[in-house]
């Protein structure tokens, strides 16, 4: 297993009012050394079985990259009747810092095949970077062994920790899809059904994850922030967290120079103007900013809505 040498990665954590709402490797065979509580349930009547649950927190080495992954637990779930059972790993994305907003819990659940697909896709594009990384092999027998699953969890942690220390891997669309793809699909489906509040809860968890991995003004983070603003403001009743997310998004967009990301800025400003007016809040500053951009020859009328712009950049549903 690659030792995953940790490199520093700057992350500006200045947002004091961040909204709150969510390989085959050398591992010890003794699960106590993995910091997990191994449990087993032999009953065939239960719908799910927890295989292990972490009982401690992973230590972060000095001078290490301050975002790490922890497999908190794993459970066996049945698929449809007659189908094979599978293991879901709950993965916690943790950031070592003093800012309270970055300590918010952020988790995803993924199967072995999700991690295997990530490894194989990254290997296609960045084989040299993964030469020393060995991924856990498939097992035809004993897939639900508590010891095997605990060992795999440890290997997955090491694999994901390594990815975020290497910019080419961290910025890969395969990794981004791995950490948010399933959640965005569910959120967009909820938005299609006008169940915005439930969708926002999922998007908030996505934001907490991306905020721990990518730079504050990165395209990944800004696009997700705009998704949150659009979801909060397109609800039949504007959600209570709309202003907080709008304020954070506007602050993050200050001094952004990336042309592709700036496409979102005009519709974001327009959405925030409408939100402020609806709330009875002074929107003069935002309207002045729009007027200034219009004077510079930037189109500010007849443009796409924020939701439509997001859909054009990253189509995932019919929410546009």
Helical element count?
A: 11
Low-confidence stretches: 1-17, 20-36, 38-46
**Percent helix range:** 40-55%
β-strand amount: 5-15%
The span between the termini is: 44 Å
Note the overall shape: elongated
SSE sequence, one letter per element: EEEEEHHHHHHHHHHH
Task: Let me know the number of strands.
Answer: 5
Structural class: alpha+beta
Estimated radius of gyration: 22 Å
| Largest sheet, strands/sense/barrel | 5 strands, antiparallel
Task: Tell me, rounded to a whole number, the average pLDDT.
Answer: 83
- What topology, given as strand order, has the largest sheet? 1-2-3-4-5
Explain what the structure shows:
Helices cover 44% and strands 11% of the residues. The protein has 320 residues and is an alpha+beta fold. Strands 1-2-3-4-5 form a 5-stranded antiparallel beta sheet. A hairpin with an 8-residue loop joins strand 3 and strand 4 (86-95). Helix 4 (173-192) packs antiparallel against helix 5 (196-213), helix 5 packs antiparallel against helix 6 and helix 6 (219-233) runs antiparallel to helix 7 (242-253). The chain starts with 35 loop residues before the first strand and ends in a 7-residue tail after the last helix.
List the helices and strands and how they pair.
Blueprint: E1 36-38, E2 49-54, E3 67-77, E4 86-95, E5 107-111, H1 112-125, H2 146-165, H3 167-170, H4 173-192, H5 196-213, H6 219-233, H7 242-253, H8 259-262, H9 265-279, H10 284-295, H11 306-313
Antiparallel strand pairs: 1-2, 2-3, 3-4, 4-5
Helix pairs in contact: 4-5, 5-6, 6-7, 6-9, 7-9, 9-10
What features would you highlight for this structure?
320 residues, alpha+beta, 11% strand, elongated
């Amino acid at each position: 297993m690659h030792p995953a040498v940790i490199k520093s990665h700057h992350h500006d954590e200045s947002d004091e009012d961040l909204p709150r709402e969510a390989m085959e490797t050398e591992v010890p065979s003794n699960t106590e050394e993995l910091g997990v509580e191994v449990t087993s349930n032999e009953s065939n009547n239960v719908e799910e079985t927890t295989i292990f649950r972490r009982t401690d927190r992973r230590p972060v080495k000095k001078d290490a990259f301050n975002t790490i992954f922890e497999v908190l637990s794993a459970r066996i779930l049945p698929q449809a009747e007659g189908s094979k059972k599978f293991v879901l790993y709950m993965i916690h994305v943790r950031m070592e810092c003093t800012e309270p907003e970055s300590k918010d819990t952020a988790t995803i659940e993924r199967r072995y095949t999700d991690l295997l697909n990530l490894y194989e896709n990254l290997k296609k594009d960045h084989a040299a970077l993964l030469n020393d990384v060995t991924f856990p092999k498939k097992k035809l027998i004993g897939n639900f062994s508590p010891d095997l699953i605990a060992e795999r969890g440890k290997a997955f942690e090491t694999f994901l920790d390594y990815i975020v220390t290497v910019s080419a891997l961290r910025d890969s669309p395969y990794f981004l899809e791995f950490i948010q793809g399933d959640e965005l699909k569910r959120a967009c489906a909820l938005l299609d059904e006008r169940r915005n509040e439930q969708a926002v809860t999922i998007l908030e968890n996505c934001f907490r994850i991306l905020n721990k991995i990518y730079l504050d003004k990165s395209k990944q983070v800004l696009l997700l922030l705009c998704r949150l603003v659009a979801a909060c403001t397109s609800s039949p009743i504007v959600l209570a967290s709309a202003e907080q997310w709008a304020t954070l998004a506007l602050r993050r967009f200050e001094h952004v120079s990336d042309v592709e990301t700036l496409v979102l800025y005009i519709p974001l400003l327009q959405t925030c103007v409408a939100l402020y007016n609806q709330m009875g809040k002074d929107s003069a500053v935002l309207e002045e900013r729009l007027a200034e951009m219009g004077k510079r020859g930037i189109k500010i009328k007849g443009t796409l809505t924020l939701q439509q712009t997001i859909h054009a950049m990253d189509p995932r549903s019919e929410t546009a």
